Amino acid sequence: MRPTEYRLLTYMALNRDRVLSHQELLDKVWGNDGGSLDSLKWHVSALRDKLEIDPKKPDIIVTFPRVGYRYIRS
Q1: What is the value of pTM for the model shown?
Q2: Full residue range of the structural domain in which residue 43 is found
Q3: Which partner from 6, 12, 31, 56 sits 20 to 30 angstroms from 24, CA to CA?
Q4: What residues contact residue 32 under an 8 Å CB cut-off, 6+ apart?
Q5: What is the per-residue pLDDT across 37-62, written as a single tens digit (0 to 9) for each?
Q6: Interior CA angle at 32 toward 27 and 33, to 5°?
Q7: In the prediction, which pLDDT does 74 show?
Q8: In what order do the strands lie in the sheet with 20-21?
């Protein structure tokens, strides 16, 4: 797992069951490094490839269009 994926997964897991906005994730995970929405989407996709049974039908990292993502895991 890449370092940014790890930071993203950790932040999402610590805030599970809450919708996290794109901007919040960019601020908390990338900080002053200036991540982009495209970079966020790429890293979420990479995490889904590793975590989801079917990455095309995610049930662990759920997308809320134009808002952000929610991590659902016990």
Answers
A1: 0.92
A2: 3-71
A3: 56
A4: none
A5: 999 999 999 999 999 999 999 999 99
A6: 100
A7: 54
A8: 20-21, 68-71, 61-64
Q: Tell me, what amino acid is at 66? A: R
3-state SS, the chain, equals CCHHHHHHHHHHHHCCCCCEEHHHHHHHHHHHHCCCHHHHHHHHHHHHHHHCCCCCCCCCEEEECCCEEEECCC
Tokens for 10, please give them: 């950790």
- Residue 33 confidence class, pLDDT cut points 50, 70, 90: confident
Distance (Å, whole) CA 13 – CA 29: 13
The CATH number of the domain holding residue 53 is 1.10.10.10
